[in-house]
Design goal:
It is a single chain. This protein has about 240 residues and is of the alpha/beta class. The protein has a single domain, classed as Spore Coat Polysaccharide Biosynthesis Protein SpsA, Chain A (Alpha-Beta Complex), CATH 3.90.550. The chain has nine helices and nine strands. It is globular.
Length: about 240
């Protein structure tokens, strides 16, 4: 019923704990597609050490970027629902069960997300995020204020609607904000979102990760995307 998508790049320090958090979910009717995007550390070797037939591993030597690899994985996904899970984050045991039940109980929903526990490099809790809004209007207002309305690695959405809106962008200038670009075009097209007001994931503050390694580039991409939407009259 569910396909979990994990794109990884040099996540050797965290990937075992991350995969374990998926394999020990209460809900177990899933496949886990992991795409290695040209890692240069031991990420690939650690992934291959797992012996679980729910794991599908795609190993690339070249780095192409998260949206390209995520689209590739979703294209072959068998699940009706796609859950995003990052290689340095942790999904809490009830995550898949709660999100799946929410989507099944309200057929009008496209996507659900949740709050998050913020953890440091050693998996210690340092904060909590309770900011994602619970309805579409507040989410659009949050975008207009320059913030992302969904914690990406907490999200689960319908594959069919994802394909209809054009998947993740592969425009180079927006690739670093591919998740925001997706949420925006889905919200503007009227697809319904919901935030579950409990933490279902642990989001790692990783000083070696994409968010911190390319902050200035991400801010520029974010600014360009908001400018595009404002010119189009969507914000």
């Amino acid at each position: 019923m569910i396909t979990i998508i994990t794109t990884v790049y040099n996540c050797g320090k965290y990937i075992k704990e991350s995969i374990d958090s998926i394999l020990t979910q209460v809900f177990d009717d899933f496949e886990l597609i992991i795409v290695n995007d040209g890692s240069t550390d031991d990420t690939s070797e650690i992934i291959r050490s797992f012996d679980d037939d729910r794991i599908i591993f795609i190993d690339h030597e070249e780095n192409a970027g998260i949206p390209i690899r995520a689209n590739e994985a979703i294209d072959i996904a068998k699940g009706d629902y796609i859950a995003i899970h990052d290689g340095d984050d942790i999904s809490l045991p009830l995550r898949l069960s709660v999100e799946f039940s929410t989507l099944k109980s309200d057929k009008s929903l496209f996507c659900v997300g949740s709050y998050a526990i913020i953890i440091d490099d050693n998996s210690n809790e340092i904060d909590r995020w309770r900011h994602p809004p619970t309805n579409n209007n507040d989410m659009i207002n949050m975008i207009a204020r320059g913030k992302n309305p969904v914690i990406n690695p907490s999200s689960m959405f319908k594959k069919s609607d994802f394909n209809k809106v054009g998947k993740y962008t592969t425009e180079k200038k927006f690739q670093l904000v591919h998740d925001l670009e997706l949420w925006g075009k889905c919200l503007f097209s009227g697809l319904r979102f919901c935030t579950i007001e409990i933490p279902l994931v642990k989001y790692r503050i990783n000083n070696n990760g994409l968010t911190f390694g390319r902050t200035l580039e991400m801010r520029k991409s974010h600014h360009l995307l908001l400018g595009k939407w404002r010119e189009e009259g969507k914000l």
